[in-house]
Amino acid sequence: MASTHSSSVKFYNYHEYILATAQEQRDQLGYATGLDEDDDSFYQVLLTHFENPHLPAPGGNGDNSSAPTRIIRIPREFSTNNDLYPQFSTFYPGTEPGALTPADGGGLTSASPLRLYLSESELHEIVSTVNTRLEAALSPYHWQNVVDHCLNLVCCWLLELVRDPYVKRRLRELETAVAETNARLAAEGKPVRVISPLRTGYLSLDIEIPRPPPLKEYT
């Protein structure tokens, strides 16, 4: 029974959720698809882009719902290494095995507005670069991490007073790689910015995009 249940579980973007009322839509999107739930034009929305927490809120009130940019969240995935070190999904948002389509989602869709700005191959390259650098920096089985831990144990962690440990050096390289990616995207005229996963506590890989048009498949 357990194996049957586990085989039916499909990976999906667990950051998505349904906006079932007009008020929820106004709170999260800044507008609603109808005046209220009884309005014939009203429809529920599967939220696939989110307020941008990486910008100061206008007026300092903590509300970024009207900001000109939104955040696409690439979720963590645990199938490759459990939770030894952070890795992010290489599925394009909306193509995960458990993603909703209008046919199977009762009109709801996991389609992402990220497609307006990045192709699948471009996103795969970005996520793969981040994943590779995170593995190199944070894998407890990397030989340099093992050596660092052994030396710190022998030196009572005094070694870190004279040089940065391997983890810090590799995470600085990740920050540099993210900055270089953003510079390249800007040079190509793409209004997209990758947020370092260090700023999200590795809970998601955030990608900043312009606020998408209020189309049904992207609201």
UniProtKB/TrEMBL annotation:
Keywords: Endoplasmic reticulum, Membrane. It is a peripheral membrane protein. GO terms for biological process: protein targeting to membrane. Residues 71-206 form the Golgin subfamily A member 7/ERF4 domain. InterPro entries: Golgin_A_7/ERF4, Ras_palmitoyltransferase. GO terms for cellular component: endoplasmic reticulum membrane; endoplasmic reticulum palmitoyltransferase complex. It is found in: Endoplasmic reticulum membrane. The keyword Membrane applies. Its main location: endoplasmic reticulum. Interacts with ERF2. Belongs to the ERF4 family. This is Ras modification protein ERF4. It comes from Geotrichum candidum (Oospora lactis). The lineage of its organism: Eukaryota, Fungi, Dikarya, Ascomycota, Saccharomycotina.
